[in-house]
Design goal:
Length: 304
């Protein structure tokens, strides 16, 4: 289902002369963006110059030129002489777009996280989470050749009058397509160690003994101990996990959450995405990554 959105996008960017031709976006990069940030997927984002402050949201629609696209089923990519063509499917007549001049993401105007924390941590006055012209960096939850990230600019806040999200406020983020890139986590130095740990599938599942064998800022490499139940091994891959690290000599305890990315030679690589503090799930912020790494580097079993 598509919805005309000329009132939202207008005729182009503010300050552009009507006679000035608008740039055509690189269609291959648009395809890659859609693959990394599909409709309905969650993502994390942080405001410009505040990488340590992250929030979570969800993509509810694409804005392509002057159309809304609400589901992945309503858009397909064909090829014309090797160049992608975006076909917006409609019950009456499909619409083919060979030149994409505007591509935006629509997200709900809701606060996920404490806006007061943002105000307290930000060095600039806060006039709402989404201010026109602000730059937000989006981080995808998908991690194949690295974590996809892209910069976006807040265009405006819109109260939807019709469609699937009628009577709800949404934010239009204009995608700065040339900034789409992948953060290669392999560039982060892996540090070897040998620290006893436990892992769980959920808060109420059994604790399985394991050993932390190396780590980076954002990932752990775990070996399931022989004393553990070998029957859990097939269940671990692609599962969300809870890893607990007790460090009595340092009077520290970390309870971390993450997703198993891959398994190799009896080891599991877990990408960290959260922590448990005071019994409550929290985001895994940049300061948490530094705290974890600094603490583990001081452990006597770590070979820095």
């Amino acid at each position: 289902m598509m919805r005309f959105m000329s009132n939202m996008l207008g005729s182009g960017r503010a300050g552009r002369s009507s006679a000035e031709p608008e740039a055509v976006l690189d269609s291959q990069r648009v395809v890659e963006l859609m693959r990394c940030f599909p409709i309905g997927s969650k993502f994390r984002y942080y405001p410009e110059y505040h990488k340590e402050i992250t929030f979570e949201s969800i993509i509810i629609a694409y804005g392509i030129n002057n159309h809304f696209v609400y589901t992945q089923r309503d858009i397909r990519v064909d090829s014309e002489r090797g160049v992608p063509v975006f076909v917006l499917e409609d019950p009456l007549k499909d619409r083919a777009i060979s030149q994409v001049r505007h591509f935006s993401l629509l997200i709900p105007d809701v606060s996920v996280g404490d806006a007061r924390d943002y105000r307290r941590q930000s060095d600039t006055p806060h006039h709402g989470r989404f201010r026109r012209g602000d730059i937000l960096t989006l981080l995808s939850i998908f991690n194949e050749k690295g974590i996809p990230h892209v910069n976006t600019m807040v265009r405006k806040r819109v109260q939807m009058r019709e469609g699937y999200y009628a009577n709800h406020a949404v934010i239009q983020l204009e995608v700065l397509i040339d900034t789409l890139n992948h953060i290669d986590q392999r560039q982060q130095r892996r540090v070897k160690t040998s620290i006893p740990a436990t892992m769980q599938f959920s808060d109420d599942s059994p604790h399985y003994p394991c050993t932390l064998v190396d780590f980076t800022e954002t990932a752990l490499r775990i070996r399931l101990d022989e004393s553990g139940d070998s029957g859990v091994v097939p269940l671990i891959e692609r599962r969300n996990m809870i890893v607990s690290l007790d460090l009595p000599a340092q009077s520290r305890r970390f309870v971390l959450t993450g997703k198993v990315l891959r398994r190799d030679a009896g080891h599991f690589v877990i990408a960290l995405n959260g922590k448990i503090k005071d019994g409550q799930p929290r985001d895994f912020e940049l300061i948490d990554a530094f705290d974890l790494k600094a603490t583990l580097l001081q452990h006597p079993a770590t070979l820095a």
